[in-house]
Design goal:
The chain is an alpha+beta fold. The protein has 30 helices and 14 strands. Helix 14 packs antiparallel against helix 15 and helix 15 runs parallel beside helix 18. Required for ciliogenesis and for structural integrity at the ciliary tip.
Length: 871
């Protein structure tokens, strides 16, 4: 079965540098084609080489719209079997010629497509292009060819060339051998698929063309498998995609023309239209399901994002000399014109030099019903029934085209009377309302685009009054708020964004119409998604405009809106309303409470109001009732603990007086933070290391212990004391090995209350580690305090840390651990319990080491009663 044959241009006798012959190797709506050089000599030659030796069945030439040749001759070239495959060895046979119309009747706006049937075998095709038709646009006497297409059968083996199987695809040949009944389906020697026609590729979007070919192959497979319902769906999809591909191809040409004219706004608009149109079509056709693999119902994953056709590579160095082989002498039979197929209707070319009018509306939609005619009578009087009928069409592409046409007509409107301008405005707003409610995203976006132009350009251009802005917004904003509850996320977001955008338009902002319309209390029966969307719009408006004078937002309209929203049955709606009230209270304070129920015990039992009242208390700097209750409970608990501790100490004194036990002083005297310089750990590990000078912390500790001892001597000389040199003043551990050097080792590696700074390696208390990083460390300039968790955060991470707001908030009346970032008990006992207990800080590696030590190991015996421990 004949098919499209791939080829490449290998020789051209001349070319314009802007329209090189390499353009002929590719087919797409953006193909510029080949043009001869200016004032060239005729005839011009082009030689193309096929990928394989083939039997040519059809040749197609798409001529330029005004650089038109009078005649084109065709030659097929082949190479004898005994010679190498080289253009120098080619032998050409003349096939005949075709004549081209001068195109005067079409006004040089159409391109002529010539299709001729041939039957010849070869590897090369040569075109001999004769002089041009003369017209006012062809000022340099050039000729141009937009595209060449060759259809035929590749010769796969050197057997009898009259055997149809020679040209059959191997896969299809094997299928026929397995099932001879399939021969009638596959072996069609004269059938040429419409998808191989030049017109298909030249006016189809390349991506759509590729999908259509895949669907066509699927359709053939479905027929073989007798899946006729599936084949029917594929046929309908192919038909629809062909229309879509042509429209996208037209958009691509318009976009390129806009880029060449440096009209980048129009180019951007066309790009957005193309992408949205493409994705909407894919969604409507459910394309992944149509492209199932191997007949299974598992959809094939495809990329739905639009692709860009790569720019065709420029033709490398082309030979400008004529091949040495000359065609055989002509005979009367050779002068026959080749049979040309019936040419298709002229196709307008968007970038033709002659000006052309375009309304943007094509095709005929279904007629409007009587009810629709009555409903749209006002718009019909202004725009006419053909345009309005497209806006009412069941085909969404017609509806989109109607809005684009209205946009162009309104933007270019030259009416002068105020009444005529208002009539045009009202008719446009009527169509915009329908577009906003449209289910198709592309139509919805076109409606927003038209409304934006009305509010920012049209009304100001024609110097209409403020009431016209109010009219336009008042009529459309209910539709936008309703669209905010759409099931499609992008429709919801676009509608909310547009409401906020139009609220900032200078002429609209001065009317305060947007805040006024948006803060109308919602109905409690309103759908949750729509109610939440409207609440979010009001929240954004409040942040954008505030409640300053002439903003349109007041405490009254905001609170009436929010109090109503608090009664909605959706938690998401109530949550947004609660946020607005909290933000408003920071600014307005007491007036906000006038719209809420009284602050009493009864209302505080309702979770929603209790949370609001407690928030108000925090904003006012007052402790909430729950915090007061908790604080009172903590005070009572601490008081009880103090009583128990005093009772315990009293009992100890009584026992010592009766001689039952010795006095045990508090294991932790007033501590001083050690500031040890980094030491060599190998020295600390070596027991035979020479004695070192006592550390600052050890000296200070001794001084405190001596003062403590002296005081105790004065109070009671009969109470024995432990030697404080053997006690860690931080963790309270007592060990005989705690000499000056032993304490340094303990501080450096084992004390659970201390840690080494990761920057300066100084040993510091964990309780004051944050302050060390901020005020004492060598790299203190690299840190900054987080106002939320109060920890020292590296400045490189500070912005990200504060923006995330995920840190644990430091609470008043508690300590905040810099290791595990948790709030812990207050005071020194809170630190000790957290850093040393079995259920304490999981991020303190020294805690487990301290817990695993044998309690009695290394402890000294108690001194005899009445004896003082020697120093």
């Amino acid at each position: 079965m004949p098919r499209k044959l791939p080829f490449r241009v290998i020789h051209v006798s001349g070319q314009d540098e802007s329209y090189r012959a390499a353009e002929l190797n590719y087919h797409s709506p953006l193909t510029k084609g080949w043009q001869a050089s200016r004032y060239c000599l005729y005839p011009q030659d082009i030689v193309i080489q096929l990928e394989n030796r083939s039997r040519l069945r059809k040749i197609q030439i798409l001529s330029h719209q005004y650089l038109i040749a009078t005649k084109i001759e065709f030659f097929v070239g082949d190479i004898p079997d005994e010679q190498s495959q080289d253009i120098e060895n080619a032998r050409y046979t003349r096939l005949g010629y075709v004549s081209l119309s001068d195109n005067e009747k079409t006004g040089y706006k159409a391109r002529e497509l010539k299709s001729v049937h041939v039957d010849a075998i070869g590897l090369y095709l040569k075109l001999n292009i004769h002089k041009n038709h003369i017209n006012k646009y062809n000022i340099y006497n050039q000729v141009g060819i937009i595209a060449i297409n060759v259809i035929g059968d590749e010769i796969r083996r050197p057997t009898d060339l009259t055997d149809p199987d020679v040209y059959l695809d191997p896969d299809k040949r094997r299928a026929i051998e397995a099932d001879p009944s399939l021969e009638g389906l596959y072996n069609k020697p004269d059938f040429i698929s419409p998808l191989d026609d030049l017109a298909f590729d030249m006016y189809q979007d390349p991506e759509i063309a590729g999908i259509i070919r895949k669907l066509e192959k699927k359709k053939q497979e479905a027929v073989l498998q007798e899946r006729f319902e599936y084949a029917k769906k594929l046929k309908a999809a192919i038909s629809e995609l062909q229309k879509v591909g042509e429209k996208l191809g037209k958009f691509e040409v318009e976009k390129r023309q806009a880029v060449e004219n440096e009209d980048y706004d129009k180019a951007k608009l066309k790009k957005v239209q193309m992408d949205e149109y493409r994705l909407q079509v894919y969604k409507d056709l459910n394309l992944p399901d149509l492209l199932e693999t191997s007949g299974s119902r598992h959809p094939q994953t495809i990329d739905l994002e639009p692709i860009r056709q790569p720019t065709p590579p420029r033709l490398q160095e082309l030979s400008y000399r004529t091949p040495p082989q000359t065609p055989p002498p002509r005979t009367p039979y050779d002068e026959r014109p080749l049979p040309a197929m019936k040419k298709p209707p002229p196709v307008p070319e968007e970038d033709d030099p002659p000006p052309e009018s375009s309304s943007g509306i094509t095709g005929e939609p279904e007629p409007m019903g009587e009810k629709e005619l009555r409903e749209a009578s006002y718009a019909i009087d202004v725009f006419g029934e053909p345009l309005v009928s497209k806006a009412y069409s069941k085909t969404w592409s017609y509806r989109e085209d109607a809005l684009l046409a209205v946009y162009k007509q309104v933007q270019e409107s030259s009416v002068s009377g105020k009444e005529e301008c208002r009539n045009l405005l009202k008719a446009t707003i009527f169509l915009v309302k329908r577009a906003i409610d449209d289910k198709v995203y592309a139509v919805f976006k076109a409606g927003l685009h038209l409304l934006r132009m009305i509010l920012t350009e049209y009304i100001a251009k024609h110097k209409l009054q403020k009431q016209d802005y109010v009219y336009a917004v008042e009529k459309t904003i209910p539709n936008l708020l309703h669209k905010g509850g759409d099931t499609a996320a992008r429709c919801r977001e676009d509608s909310k964004s547009f409401v906020l955008e139009e609220a900032s338009f200078p002429d609209v902002k001065s009317t305060n119409i947007v805040p006024h319309e948006c803060t109308k209390p919602i109905k409690l029966s309103l759908a949750p998604r729509q109610a939440q969307s409207q609440c979010e719009i009001v929240e954004s408006l409040y942040r954008q405009l505030g409640i300053k004078t002439n903003s349109g937002l007041t405490v009254d309209n905001l609170m009436q809106f929010c109090v109503t929203a608090l009664g909605h049955n959706s938690g998401e709606v109530r949550e947004v309303a609660e946020r607005i009230i909290k933000e408003l209270y920071k600014e307005a304070k007491e007036p906000v409470k006038d719209y809420l129920p009284p602050d009493n015990e009864k209302n505080r039992k309702i979770t929603l109001y209790r949370q609001l009242y407690e928030y108000f208390d925090r904003v006012d700097g007052k402790p909430s009732k729950s915090e007061v209750k908790k604080r009172k409970s903590d005070d009572e608990r601490k008081k009880q603990q103090e009583i128990e501790m005093l009772q315990q100490q009293l009992q100890q004194l009584k026992d010592m007086a009766s001689g039952k036990q010795d006095y045990h002083p508090s294991p932790r005297p007033k501590k001083h933070k050690p500031k040890l310089k980094p030491v060599d750990e190998s020295i600390l590990e070596n027991k035979k290391a020479p004695p070192r000078r006592p550390s600052v912390a050890s000296k200070k500790m001794k001084q405190d212990a001596k003062k403590k001892n002296d005081k105790k001597k004065k109070d009671d000389d009969d109470i024995s004391m432990y030697n404080m040199d053997n006690i860690c003043i931080f963790c309270g551990e007592r060990n005989e090995s705690f000499t000056e050097e032993g304490l340094d080792l303990h501080y450096w590696k084992h004390c659970p209350m201390l840690k080494r700074c990761t920057n300066c390696k100084q040993v510091v208390e964990i309780a004051s580690y944050t302050e060390h990083l901020l005020t004492e460390c060598e790299l203190k300039t690299n840190y900054q305090r987080c106002p939320r968790c109060t920890e020292a955060i590296p400045k490189s991470d500070f912005d990200e840390h504060t923006a995330a707001k995920s840190c644990n908030v430091a609470r008043t009346g508690t300590n905040h651990c810099p290791l595990c970032h948790q709030n812990i008990g207050a005071g020194e006992e809170g630190w000790k319990s957290h850093l040393m207990s079995r259920e304490g800080c999981k991020q303190n590696p020294r805690r487990l080491l301290a817990l695993n030590k044998t309690p009695a190991a290394g402890k000294t015996k108690a001194a005899p009663k009445g004896k003082k421990t020697p120093r």
